[in-house]
Amino acid sequence: TTNGEFFEGKPNGGLDTNEREFYKAFIRPDEEGSMVIKLDYRDSASNGEAPHSFYLRHRAEIVERTVYFRRAWQNLAADTVFETAMSNVPTAFTFIGNKPAIAYLSGRGTVKVATFNGNRWNELGKFTEADSVTNIQLASDGTSLYVGALTTGKKFTVRKSAGGTSEINDGQSTTNVEEPQLIGNVDGKVLFSYVNTGASNHGYIAYLNGSTWTKKEVINSALRDIKATFTDDGKLIVVGISNSTNYTGYVAMYDGSYSQLLAATNIGNDYGSIGIGTEGNKLYLAYMNRDIDNYGTYLKTANIGADNISWQASSQIFEGILSYHLDVAARNNIVYV
User: Fold this and answer.
1) What's the first-to-final CA gap in the chain, in angstroms?
2) What ranges make up the beta strands (E) of 108-144?
3) Which of 120, 131, 230, 311 has the lowest CB atom count within 10 Å?
4) pTM greater than the 0.85 cutoff
5) How far apart are CA 322 and CA 289, in angstroms?
């Protein structure tokens, strides 16, 4: 029960998530409140329909727990609906200075970009790819806006809007791309990390050098996933997960000119989906732990040195939850996952 609403499970102990009452009772509302969870001993019956003699033999105390929660996020203004669609390609969001920008899929291969001027959203432009778009990325170097679109043909095209106000250019394409992540920093640097399917699935970056994109191998191992982030002092840190059955993690570090400071180093096994972020000399790695005895979502912290990264112990943040998409941000020594 929650806020006076009562929801009963199915006789076999399962839950029918299609019922309105399920959402009322089990999806966190947008106000403070509490939820009472009860476990009846009858739930131990294999199908919920056992003879009375079964209940007499398996009689047990009904366990009850009350969970209290507070409203974690608050709307600052009314929502803006750009358009309704059936796409499952996530929207991309970033800032140009203090101006929000958004990119979203509108149709099979059309990407639209909009910026917020403080009062309303204005469409900056749109472009259409020949193939279906499967991934949208958005980043800024502090002055301009960059939009990346990955297609089913593994072609990743990055386009630019100078100042975040001019028309979006035609951009340049890179082939054999999987798991791209487009990032930038206020020092004018823009790059994307990716798994290069044309180079044995090794970890690569492509950074903007003038008006062209320069490719560089950063992890010399076959990967299934790769993430990159800039540190406050301009270093680049890359974390990759091998496509072996061990799910081995690797970390590498480069300076502001993309010269190697730390070669790809093994950081252990059983890494599932990952997200990374930095603040000061701290590196934060959130990951899905695939170890059968420690399943769940963990956060790992490291100290960033001049040419080394020293890891500290991991801490579990979500027990038993299978996390497929993880993002990390750190502000004022508080880490958000």
Assistant:
1) 29
2) 110-116, 121-128, 133-140
3) 120
4) no
5) 9
Give the whole-angstrom CA distance, residue 317 versus residue 315.
6
d(C-alpha 246, C-alpha 267), whole Å: 12
Q: Digits of tens for pLDDT over the chain (337 positions)?
A: 455 556 666 666 566 666 665 555 555 555 666 677 777 655 555 555 666 776 677 666 777 777 666 555 666 777 888 888 778 899 999 999 889 999 999 988 999 999 998 888 999 999 999 999 999 999 999 899 999 999 999 999 999 999 999 999 989 999 999 999 999 998 889 999 999 999 999 999 999 888 889 999 999 999 999 999 999 999 999 999 999 999 999 999 999 999 999 999 999 999 999 999 999 999 999 999 999 888 889 999 999 999 999 999 889 988 777 888 899 999 999 999 9
Rounded to whole angstroms, the Cα distance separating 158 from 173 reads: 7
